[in-house]
Amino acid sequence: MTKLRFAPLALSLFAAFAASAHADEVSVAVAANFTAPMQKIAAAFEKDSGHKAVLSFGATGKFYAQINNGAPFGILLAADDTTPAKLAQEGKGVAASRFTYAIGQLVLWSKQAGYVDDTGAVLKTGDYKHIAIANPKLAPYGLAAEQTLLQLGPRTALRLTTARYYTPSGRSIQALGISPDVVVQQPAKRNPATD
After folding, report:
1. Which residues lie below 8 Å from residue 181, measured CB to CB, with a gap of 6+?
2. 31, 71, 135, 176: most buried, per Cβ within 10 A?
3. 128 to each of 107, 125, 145, 154, 158, how far by Cα in Å?
4. What's the CA gap between 33 and 38, in Å, rounded?
5. CA-CA distance, 184 to 122, in Å (whole number)?
6. pLDDT tens digits, residue range 119-172?
């Protein structure tokens, strides 16, 4: 079984691959948050080396499951540092190849200019219709977003709910035997008189 290599810096790893490759393609699992940069890196790698990086983009958690089920990735660019460490510990990766290739940061963004400030004050007003986050079970940034939103607690107009989900036609997904991907556990309600 070929062990998975974790990407320190994509270009340096690709350079090492090009020098010692037994094939002219390498299968690379790339966390979705690194899609645009990786597409450029892979194109430059192919142009410079003649070798091809076959890219798959998705959630780090899904790649973990795929690798555990035998997916033939040669390189994993994860959105966290715990997944590669876990794979190495389980004997499915080369521990010495792990390194941090980027450091991410959560942002609150709107396409409407001036709508969001650097303190996230809009979350306290309730003057928004939707907030989208990645699936916390599969994506490290989704988990970080969920944890951040829950920490805002009663100071924000935001309320996370999983009471009922409906299809576009109005049918409850629970009635169809489908459960939500994510059920968020709300922190215990605070009593201002005793807290």
Report:
1. 135, 137
2. 31
3. 16, 8, 17, 17, 9
4. 10
5. 22
6. 888 887 777 777 888 777 777 788 888 888 877 766 565 555 444 555 556 666
